[in-house]
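TICKET: design request
STATUS: open
ATTACHED STRUCTURE:
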């Protein structure tokens, strides 16, 4: 299910299908492929750091001819041979490349009745060549960057972010190629599956932003480990190093939108035995913890993330107003306490919307459940309501009874829908002080108010409910009190 703001839910239904795999080895002339239903244990580590991505594959009971072939044997100390291993895995027959790298060592051993062939691999494109190169004054950083990569010849050029500027004087670089590239780019270059990318701290790969929560494969409670947020989920071969992921966990204080700086795929895929498979996500955060927020991950109200595809750059597709980023930062740095700032051009405060007087919402629920899309929904409905009342009942004071509801608050209300729009911040229950609801309701109902519905909520203390969906003829009336 894709959201308007460029955020998408991980399709958790795929994880219920059979997981299959395929591994191919090539020396540039010969290629051999094996796969499901054979059993494989795999461990893959990919990240944005200078260290090489690595992988280990243990394949059970290959045929004698396959395991004895030159393609499936590699002496660790023989550096003259060059074999490329490509491992693909996925659900429902859809295989995705999870690792592509060079075979470092491969050997076969017997373990009980099993014969296991184990391969140890590292990233195909990590340039360890020692280079000595001089660039003239006026050479742009991007020109120097491309020149080095072209001369290496092994790497596919991926995303190039904001690599601006030029050398003011002649300059000489020497060292390993990857070290030189990182010196030019300020430490922002990494290699993943043979593709070289350069992303500044506020830049990400041009992909959708999946939501990772309990419904979409999140298995544990995200935790902070040193400078990272670590979360474990069901094996997801779709993720890419450098993309954004929105993490949602009502049990953890570490929810937010983070850049994926590394992950580990680990598990067993087999047509003969059951096996578990996981993906452990690593999100790098900064000093403004305890909660990873948009400031620490590179995005603020003044500096949103930029998505990069090759050399093309554009803002991450959001419909969010700049101020909602500031609100989420405040909430996460004040243990769930909403600010008393005004909401847009209204005279409502964010505290009135998220923690109105008498609400069952708690600060911890605000902290763990409120997201940027929810805040944007709150803002839209609040401004619509405020503008309408100012035109039709000028000078009136609006009493907000309920806007955003936590999951727990919504569950306590007997007549509340499990899919209530309040859970997304897209509805407000209100009344106007000093004016009966009948008068207010009639004035509201008799006007065509696009993209809202209106209804009484309870049988005792009636409130007027508005939400950002379109009813018949612009309004939907359910019940009415005389």
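STATUS: resolved
RESOLUTION: sequence designed for all positions
ATTACHED SEQUENCE:
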């Amino acid at each position: 299910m894709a959201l308007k703001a460029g955020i998408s839910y991980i399709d958790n239904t795929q994880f219920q299908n059979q997981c299959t795999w395929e591994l191919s080895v090539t020396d540039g002339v010969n290629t051999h492929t094996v796969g499901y239903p054979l059993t494989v244990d795999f461990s893959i580590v990919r990240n944005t750091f200078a260290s090489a991505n690595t992988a280990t594959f243990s394949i059970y009971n290959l045929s004698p001819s396959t395991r004895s072939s030159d393609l499936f044997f590699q002496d660790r100390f023989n550096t003259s041979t060059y074999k490329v291993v490509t491992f693909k895995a996925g659900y429902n027959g859809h295989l995705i490349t999870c690792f592509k790298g060079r075979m470092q060592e491969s050997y076969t051993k017997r373990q009980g009745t099993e014969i296991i062939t184990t391969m140890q691999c590292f990233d195909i494109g990590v340039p360890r060549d020692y280079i000595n190169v001089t660039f003239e004054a006026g050479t742009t950083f991007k020109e120097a960057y491309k020149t080095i990569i072209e001369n290496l010849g092994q790497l596919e050029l991926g995303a190039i972010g904001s690599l601006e500027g030029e050398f003011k004087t002649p300059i000489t670089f020497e060292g390993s190629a990857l070290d030189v590239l990182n010196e030019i780019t300020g430490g922002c270059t990494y290699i993943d599956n043979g593709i070289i990318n350069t992303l500044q701290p506020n830049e990400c790969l041009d992909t959708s932003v999946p939501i990772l929560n309990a419904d979409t494969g999140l298995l544990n409670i995200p935790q902070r480990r040193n400078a990272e947020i670590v979360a474990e989920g069901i094996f997801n071969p779709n993720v890419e190093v450098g993309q954004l992921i929105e993490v949602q966990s009502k049990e953890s204080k570490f929810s937010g939108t983070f850049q994926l700086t590394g992950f580990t795929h680990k598990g067993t895929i087999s047509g003969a035995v059951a096996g578990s498979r996981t993906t452990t996500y690593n999100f790098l955060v900064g000093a403004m913890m305890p909660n990873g927020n948009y400031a620490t991950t590179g995005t603020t109200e003044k500096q949103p993330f930029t998505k990069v595809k090759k050399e093309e750059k554009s803002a991450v597709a959001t419909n969010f107003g700049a101020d909602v980023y500031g609100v989420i930062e405040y909430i996460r740095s004040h243990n769930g306490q909403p600010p008393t700032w005004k909401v847009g051009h209204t005279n409502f405060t964010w505290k009135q919307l998220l923690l109105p007087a008498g609400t069952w919402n708690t600060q911890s629920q605000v902290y763990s459940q409120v997201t940027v899309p929810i805040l944007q929904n709150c803002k839209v409905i609040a401004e619509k309501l405020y503008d309408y009342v100012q035109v039709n009942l000028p000078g009136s004071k609006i009493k907000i009874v309920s806007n955003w509801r936590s999951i727990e608050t919504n569950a306590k209300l007997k007549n509340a829908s499990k899919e209530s729009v309040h859970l997304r911040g897209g509805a407000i229950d209100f009344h106007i002080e000093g004016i009966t609801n009948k008068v207010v309701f009639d004035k509201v109902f008799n006007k065509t108010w696009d993209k809202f519905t209106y209804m009484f909520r309870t049988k005792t203390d009636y409130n007027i409910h508005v939400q950002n969906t379109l009813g018949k003829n612009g309004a939907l009336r359910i019940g009415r009190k005389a």
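CLOSING REMARK: The longest strand covers residues 94-111. Residues 322-474 form a domain with the Muramoyl-pentapeptide Carboxypeptidase; domain 2 fold (CATH 3.30.1380.10).
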